[in-house]
């Protein structure tokens, strides 16, 4: 078996017809995020995310203390210590939509 790397470095085409594609790098989620409920109304929560590689440290910036460790894998966001653990990052990186319908918007 031998493989050929594409000119842009995004894939390897193997002699048996199999193609490996480079996984996208995780977006940088570091910064301030404002929460919105599923009905579109703004929540009282403002979140700080600090990202190191694919690892996240998530913390509420006011009110009751809430924090979680997390990770990002492609467009999948996981907050390991929250009741709603799974979210999806928008293609432009400006929103995280959680499975409970809440949305965090980047500020």
Structural class: mainly beta
Largest sheet: 8 strands, antiparallel, barrel
Spell the H/E element sequence: EEEEEEEEEEE
Provide mean pLDDT, rounded.
Answer: 91
* Number of DSSP strand runs: 11
Strand order of the largest sheet: 4-5-6-7-8-9-10-11
Global shape: elongated
Q: Termini, distance in Å? A: 49 Å
Give the fraction of residues assigned to helices: under 10%
With helices defined by DSSP (H or I, 4 residues minimum), what is the helix count?
0
Uncertain runs with pLDDT below 50, 5 residues or more? none
The Rg value, from CA coordinates, equals: 18 Å
Report strand %. over 45%
Q: Can you put this structure into words, describing what you see?
A:
This protein is 0% helix and 52% strand. The protein has no helices and 11 strands. The strands form 2 sheets. The protein has an 8-stranded antiparallel beta barrel with strand order 4-5-6-7-8-9-10-11. The protein has a 3-stranded antiparallel beta sheet with strand order 1-2-3, with no helix packed on it. The termini are far apart.
């Amino acid at each position: 078996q031998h493989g050929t790397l594409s000119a842009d470095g995004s894939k390897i085409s193997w002699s048996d017809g199999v193609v490996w594609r480079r996984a996208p790098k995780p977006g940088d989620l570091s910064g301030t995020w404002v929460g919105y409920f599923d009905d579109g109304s703004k929540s009282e929560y403002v979140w700080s995310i600090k990202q190191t590689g694919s690892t996240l440290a998530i913390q509420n910036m006011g009110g009751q203390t809430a924090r979680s460790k997390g990770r990002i894998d492609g467009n999948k966001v996981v907050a390991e210590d929250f009741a709603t653990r799974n979210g999806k990052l928008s293609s432009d990186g400006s929103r995280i939509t959680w499975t409970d319908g809440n949305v965090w918007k980047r500020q």
